[in-house]
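Batch job 17 of 40 flagged for manual review because the log was empty.
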Amino acid sequence: MGAVRQSFRSPARWTNPGPSAKLRPTHAVPSLPSCRRTALLSAPGLCPAVAGLVLSSLAAQPQTPPPDEASPETPPFVSSPSEEQIAFFEKRIRPVLAENCYECHSASSDPLEGGLLLDSRAGLMKGGDSGPVATAGDPESSLLIHAIRYVDPDLAMPPKKKLPPEVIADLEEWVRQRLPDPRSADTVATVESRNAIDWETARNWWSFQPIVSPALPTVQNEDWPANELDLFVLARLEENGLTPAAGAGKRVLIRRVTYGLTGLPPSPAEAEAFLNDQAPGAFARVVDRLLQTPAYGERWARHWLDVVRYADTAGDNSDFPVPQHYRYRNWVIDAFQRDLPYDQFVREQLAGDLLPSEDEPEARNRLVATGYLANARRFGSRVDDYPQHLTIEDTIDNLGRTFLGLTINCARCHDHKFDPISAEDYYALYGIFRSTRYPWPGIELDQRQRDLVPLASPAEIAEAEEAHRQQEEQWKARLSEVQQEFDAAEDGAKKKLRPVLDKAKQDLDAHVATPPPYERAYAVADASSIEDAAVQLKGDPSKEGPVVERRFLTVLGGERLPPDEAASGRRQLAEWIVDPGNPLAARVMVNRIWLHHFGRGLVPTPNDFGRQGQPPSHPELLDWLAFRFRESGWSIKAMHRLILLSQTYQQSSERPSACLTNDPANILLGGYPRRRLDAESIRDTLLLLGGALDPSQGGEHPFPPQNEWKFTQHNPFKAVYETDRRSVYLMTQRIQRHPFLATFDGADPAASTPVRSTSTTPLQALYFLNDPLVHEQSGRFASRILASGQEDAGRLRWAYAQALGRPPLDEEMLAAQRFLATVSGMLSETITSEETREKQSWQAFTRVLFQLNEFLYLD
């Protein structure tokens, strides 16, 4: 009966029919099967309004299709009523509907309850949000009749007072007559037209406008700009009567840019080399050197992995590990390192398996790249009715935010409330991913992986599978032999043979559970069934509407697949995204690059370029950068050079007083924004100073063997694997945060993280006091300091150069020496060894250095 209630009175939601149109209420409450509720509520990106309504959608019943005059399954509505039927309707039915129903269920209703229109024959036939309201010829199956009979108080209509018995009898008779209705006005078309998206108006929104190269602004201080980028920043400052900060010193610059490009501090030798290089172009040479280091790829891959919510586990309620997924992580690192053009970077992640390749290594790499799609989150523990629509929703959600800066997933249940994205747009993309085969990572009720993509040749696969089969036969033979011996044995001997028999069974089961030993990628492929998808009414996969042809978003051109396309459409989707006619791809990516150099994007909401996001602070500069980005061949390293060699980037963080007063948030960039190191940089620096950092590339994590997987919802996979490699190689769980990364605002692996938050908590201070990693690395750093020289003054200069990139001031030198003497004196009461006291005194001093703002912040 819940469906009846929803058909008549479902809570309202708001949609935006066009960027400049008035917002009007409509209705969109999904009738959700109870088995889906938990998974749907945990779905990332699920609209809060919809999530709030899920719990009220109690045990929704299976729905029949809307009535259709041509449907052979149900009697048709009367199409040509007789004079007697018209008279009956006009005298006995229309007045009742007008008096009792039109207030909530007509084209003039605001809001329109339940999506149900009773002021026209078209509305009556269409039904409401939850399906048909009447079954022609059958009052007992009609929701309308159930409602007016007041069978259930929660479903009673009209809600204020029950209709008289004779009126109810008239409505029952009307249904028996197959609902003759002479009304010709199509109020359904009227409402749909009123709420339709105005596409021409929608394309006027700033982010949908074509990218053009804007004219360079004129400035008063023509000596300040170092390149054309600076003209846009300086012009805005001068418009507001402000002047930029002075240039940063060389020590500040070398530390800033080294952390910015590599996530690590410069070595004292690198800093001194830059200080001593007085020739023109010294800073450009530093930038070029850093862009070639392996640390650059590791640093900038981490930024991308934040956005695509990379994890080494699947995200289901048992959080199954994905041992092969490190290949995608390493592919991203390599792509940044070799400056893979961004348009190709997009193509390979969406359709690497469908692209032609020059050789076997390139083909393998492109297969691995589709790990981006395979990385989509898994839900629940069901197998036969696994909620694949939620995994596809997670895919579309991340694709929209990552590549387009749009919240496409908000159109899953209804047209987007704010942006020009229709539900049909959503399901046009949905069909592409429903035609894609995702790998199965394992789940509580089906714990073995399947559908991974082989990285071996057909011959290698055949050889490995044959060897695996032969070994299985050997284990079976062994089990059969032991079983026969057990069956023939006397009772006393059987007791001794039981462990042998059990071991033989375990060995066979373990072998069967272990896949043949050839390499696989956690990647996608086209599905065996390629087809368009139907709209899921209100996001409920059990209620299908019209089928939507696979295509791109209407507001971005709506390109369609060729009529004879036999593949999923992922290859075309990638091309639509990077097409010159799509202005979003370039704008979104250059904004991300800017964000990680300045701590704030030109668009402060880097995942949302729609109406709910914030507009760009420097729109002309954003377009100028996006134009140059595409002009450079989509080179990310070229964009780094352009930004880093600007005077804007090389300003001091000490801003003029007028800027502090009139632009307190530094939106106009009258100085470099001081910011804290992120979690990975802090950890990697501690390891580096301790001399423990392993610079080699990380590989597979030490997960337990697959034949031992027995994870459940109540006993999920959970582990922390320590490593001395860089933090980008830490094992990342989808639903279990790494303790260190959680403490210092690391990315949330369950959702796209375009911007890291920066919190200041007591736990962070306590970490530097008590954590074993800090104590271990401070001890190692202290040993390195002691080995650097014999005198405290020289040791202090060495320590400051390593930790802060500068020599200590005179007052710092005196304070440090007093500190060392004081600590040594305190330790002498309990420690007799002078060597031990000296080591622990310096270890205490290094922990003081680690807690300095100067250590944790970039100027």
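Reviewer: the log was empty due to a logging misconfiguration, but the result itself is present. The first strand starts at residue 12 and ends at 15. Unflagging and moving on to job 18.
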